[in-house]
Amino acid sequence: MSEFFPEVPKIVYGGPTSRNPLEFKHYNPDEVIGDKTLKEHLRFSVVYWHTFSNPLSDPFGAGTAVRPWDDGSNSVPNAQRKARAAFEFFEKLGAPFYAFHDRDVAPEGKTLRESHANLDEVVKVFKDEQARTGVKLLWGTANLFSNPRYMHGAATSPNLDAFAYAGAQVKKAMEVTHDLGGGGYTFWGGREGYSTLLNTDMKRELDHLARFLHLAVDYKKQIGFTGTFYIEPKPKEPTKHQYDSDTAACLNFLRTYDLLPHFKLNLESNHATLAGHEMMHELEAAIGAGALGSIDANTGDPLLGWDTDQFPTSIYLTTQCMLCILGMGGFTTGGVNFDAKVRRESFEPIDLFHAHIGGMDAFARGLKVAHAIIADGRLSSFVTERYRSWDSELGRRIESGNATLTELEAYILPKGEANKNASGRQEMLENLINEFI
């Protein structure tokens, strides 16, 4: 079989002094940091949708992507050829995982039955290619937002038929993910929200969304799927307001409807900034609830106010991400999933390699910097010392729920005034981070 990327060799580690754009400068998969290799720490995943199904179009122009393996037909043979090209890419890049939506990988048919059959034909190629390459499925999902039937939502649609169709689509996508040995399944509510409350029964829609997810939990148990369920927050775009708007909103929803035991969060950097948060905030909010499962690795352009899905290149951002992830003990599910796309002007197949190499190097550097900061101990020692007063007997009583307001008054009355505050030393700590970067 001829190669789809004949001009690209297997990407290897060349080291920081390498000037070869098709070599890693910082990601050496076998290098050990702490108790794991970089490959084990980072668990890199390539997304199917942006990498192999995105034509690089925008609202002002047709797609620019040159993809020799794609003949543009909406046919199963074309989808199977694209699948083989994808696995050649995964293998040459050295990515251990991939992720997909059902409609990314197989054409949608005229009926649901036909769509199911199309997906089954492409999954046969996936199974063969997984066996050949050793690449695994990080997570699968269903596209419940592109087809016009979902214009009002899927699980939150006022149209019962749209809800039922979405349920059938998720059922099939879960079966396929299970059959491929996928490590998880993700729910992203791209149309689960509203444009105006004038025509929206929010309480009923949220109840329906919860019922939909409970149905998925029940079916997961029925088929014996042991992978992790993820919710991916995003505040807006395509809807004005999405119900899974940020980490806090998702956690509140999951707790309200008794779903938190069954779900973790898949957090994305660009979604965090659209919600008005830093990625570090979203990560810490999820970690505090024991609910961080995986991350989508990308970034947005600070001059643009939408989801640009650019590859991550900021070492400061990747360091912050890895400080959080290492701080929780590392990934136990999920990984670093490149939900990112090349720019419209970067239209040649080789640009896909340049983009992923840069993102993998950026996270490798972030991991090394974060590990060094943690090993150094100054940052964590400062935080520990800042909260030292809470290690007192009264502090422990408050934190354990045993103190009363009367007790607080009795403590502070003899003092007359609270002890003086200490400086937060923000600038000093930012300097510390830069010292390692």
Q: Tell me the total number of β-strands.
A: 14
Task: State the distance separating the first and last CA atoms.
Answer: 44 Å
Number of helices: 16
At the third CATH level, what is the topology name of the largest domain? TIM Barrel
Protein name: Xylose isomerase
Subcellular location: Cytoplasm
EC number: 5.3.1.5
Catalytic activity: alpha-D-xylose = alpha-D-xylulofuranose
Describe, in plain words, how this protein is organized in 3D.
The protein has two domains: 365 residues, Divalent-metal-dependent TIM barrel enzymes (TIM Barrel); 50 residues, no CATH class. The model has no long low-confidence stretch (mean pLDDT 97). The chain contains 16 helices and 14 strands. It is an alpha/beta fold and 437 residues long. An eight-stranded parallel sheet has the order 7-6-5-14-13-12-10-8. A two-stranded parallel ribbon has the order 1-2. Helix content is 45%, strand content 11%.
